[in-house]
Please model this.
Amino acid sequence: MAGFNSNEYRMLQSFQWQNLSSDQQFSLWKDAKIKTFAHVNAAAPIRIKSFNTADFDSIKSIKDQCRGANLSLFEIHDVPKSENEAAKELAGFASRFGLTLPETHRSEGEDGVVALKTSSASRQKGYIPYTPRALNWHTDGYYNAESARVQAFALYCHNPAVKGGDNQFIDGEIAYMRMRDENPDYVRAFMHPQALTIPANEENDGDGRPVSVGPVFYPDSVTGRLQMRYTARTRSIEWRTDTQTQEAVAWMREWLDRGDEFRVQLGLKAGQGVLNNNVLHNRTSFEDDPNGGGQRIMMRARFHDRISEE
Ligand SMILES: [Fe+2]
Model:
């Protein structure tokens, strides 16, 4: 990023976040993280003529923003006309960020991209993403097996809701930072390999999902950077029962409710989207046009790899 200190980026990449004993390293990292995050957060959306013609500089800017803040907002000028075109173009665009391992998803269309919209299809029935209801804080794929973790996703607004449907995002590294400031033992509890269990999901058609057990904070297997696996839901979920974990869960819920100066709130307009390293996010409830004129359609692509860093 022009005019920005590359030492700070290096600091973010090399920080040993799993080592909770060095307060000095933590303090240095924190300064770098806050500076970098604030810089990205204050930036305008990165404007791109079209998905297919995105130039090298725009791609680099998005990569740099994700390296610093794990999130980048972009805006497409020549938008794809149809859902199918949007899916195809979004998949092609994502591949330019080293995102080459798409998640196979029950609701995906072509190119591993899912169209999130109100749906009455039987496979989607009852799943909140396909209703106009609010979605609580989570990271994507928190219920996945360890071998299929989601490290990044792209979200692109093909058509906004008539009302509502805003998203909020919080960088997992900011969550880690706030939690470690509050109590490093909470971070330790969230790093435990059995911190969070999502029981198996049995389905009538036998197409269930096995139990998912794992930590909240874990390292990306390639870069070592912090990734998060979290849900604020309270049903069909088992947290470790020790005091530290229970206190950490309560603190996290309270902190997310309270808000943070680095919480990013976006009402994505048609043509806008985000690329991110699977940061915490939620969604407010929304309304589609009752006359059938407009329906909220968000295209989403999930990946098992992080956005590449240069
Ligand atoms: Fe999500």
Remarks:
- The pocket of fe (ii) ion is lined by residues 138, 140, 281 (CB under 6 Å).
- Helices lie at 6-14, 23-41, 56-69, 83-95, 172-182, 184-190, 243-258.
